[in-house]
TrEMBL record:
GO terms for molecular function: metal ion binding; metalloendopeptidase activity. Proteolytically removes the C-terminal three residues of farnesylated proteins. GO terms for biological process: CAAX-box protein processing. This is CAAX prenyl protease. It is found in: Endoplasmic reticulum membrane. Pfam families: Peptidase_M48, Peptidase_M48_N. Its cofactor is Zn(2+). It is an enzyme of class 3 (hydrolase). Zn(2+) binds at H245, H249, E322. It comes from Emiliania huxleyi (strain CCMP1516). PANTHER family: CAAX PRENYL PROTEASE 1. InterPro entries: CAXX_Prtase_1 (IPR027057), Peptidase_M48 (IPR001915), Peptidase_M48_N (IPR032456). Residues 174-376 form the Peptidase M48 domain. It is a multi-pass membrane protein.
Length: 386
């Protein structure tokens, strides 16, 4: 690990502490607003949503119509309740450390797009068929619900990089030059079946840098943030080391592994849903009578409270995948340590996090852990070569 300037180290620690403190408050706030949302939905479901459906000629048992009316009537709360946290994160926390690149207008535009596309549109597209399945298939409906949701998640993985991500950023071919030549040569030598390489204008929102390989089947693409190229000073060797790491994720089938884990998680969730048939799960929140939509809504909300425990296991898994992708980059002939150190410096990464906090929250090992693992691997390769 290259020497770290004490002032830079202190700045990174200050950023981590500020993020952790804010994260704790934001989690509590999210839990509280999630529960308020449920109580609010009950009041709207029993009152204005029912009146609206009756006025349009429906009946109280038209649950999809009532669900749609409730969703629309509660939309202002859903949109506005997240605003304080997002505003603070963007214009106070990230701004203070020089990462925020949003203007008020671009932030507002992105927030509205996220809400309409990801919450209203995708939420409805998933929830409506799920309600019909749970409503009509009786005791084994949890299994059909699991099957449908798993397919929906797979489809989303194919569709998101092609149709949805471009709504928020511009994905352009890498500009001609040394970086593009280097990355194209790397793609060819690695044997990855992926011809789409994009540069994304991540700098429109944030100064943080990233790169990834996304999509399944025909939608697979390599995406490099413009900020990554800037942070690595346009150094072709360093950029290729990072892209080789991302190619490693794809070539080692980490996307399928993560899809498998999320499918297993969905199975556990729906099996539990199949067991939780007590109507009080719905009526205790103030809803007038249980139905498929309300059972799903209350169960998903309660499940989201247990998510930190799930992400604890998932993070332990993804940290191992990161080591494997680093090793893949080394096997392709790159020493990724310099790039990791540069990225860590510009992203103000926490070099010395609390181990317990790290265990729960970090999907990646720390830079120090990754650099040491790469060093160990390079030493072993050297010894074998002697
Ligand atoms: Zn990675």
């Amino acid at each position: 690990m290259p020497e770290v300037d004490p002032a830079e180290y202190a700045r990174a620690q200050e950023y981590s502490a500020a993020k952790n403190n804010f994260g704790f408050v934001a989690d509590l706030y999210g839990l509280a607003t999630g529960l308020v949302h449920l109580w609010l939905q009950a009041a709207v479901w029993n009152g204005p949503a029912l009146s609206l459906v009756l006025r349009c000629g429906g009946t109280a048992s038209h649950e999809l119509a009532r669900a749609g009316a409730s969703m629309l009537l509660c939309a202002p709360w859903d949109l506005l309740s997240g605003v304080p946290v997002d505003l603070y994160r963007t214009f106070v926390l990230e701004e203070r450390f020089g990462f925020n690149k949003h203007t008020w207008l671009s932030w507002l535009g992105d927030s509205l797009k996220h809400f309409v596309v990801e919450e209203l549109l995708m939420g409805s597209l998933m929830m409506a068929p799920l309600v019909l399945l749970v409503r009509s298939l009786g005791p084994s409906s949890w299994l059909y619900g699991f099957g449908f949701t798993s397919l929906f998640v797979l489809l989303l993985n194919v569709v998101y990089p092609v149709w949805i991500a471009p709504l928020f950023n511009t994905f352009a071919p890498l500009p001609e030059g040394d970086v593009r030549d280097g990355v194209e040569a790397l793609v060819k030598s690695s044997g990855i079946n992926c011809s789409r390489i994009f540069q994304v204008d991540g700098s429109r929102q944030s100064a943080h840098s990233n790169a990834y390989v996304a999509g399944f089947f025909g939608s697979k693409r390599i995406v490099i943030y413009d900020t990554l190229i800037t942070h690595l000073d346009g150094d072709v060797e360093d950029i290729c080391a990072v892209v080789a790491h991302e190619i490693g994720h794809a070539q080692l089938h980490h996307n399928y592994a993560l899809l498998g884990v999320s499918t297993a998680q969905l199975f556990v969730m729906f099996r539990l849903f199949g067991v939780c048939t007590d109507p009080r799960l719905v009526t205790d929140f103030g809803f007038d009578a249980p139905c498929a939509y309300l059972s799903l809504l209350t169960f998903f909300t309660l499940w989201s409270v247990a998510m930190p425990l799930v992400s604890f296991g998932l993070n332990a898994f993804t940290r191992q995948l990161e080591y494997q992708a680093d090793a893949y980059s080394v096997r392709l002939g790159f020493d990724i340590r310099k790039a990791l150190a540069k990225i860590s410096k510009t992203n103000l990464s926490d070099l010395n996090p609390d181990p317990l906090d790290s265990l729960f929250h970090h999907s990646h090992p720390t830079t120090v852990q990754r650099v040491l693992a790469v060093k160990q691997l390079l030493d072993t390769c050297e010894r074998k070569a002697l």
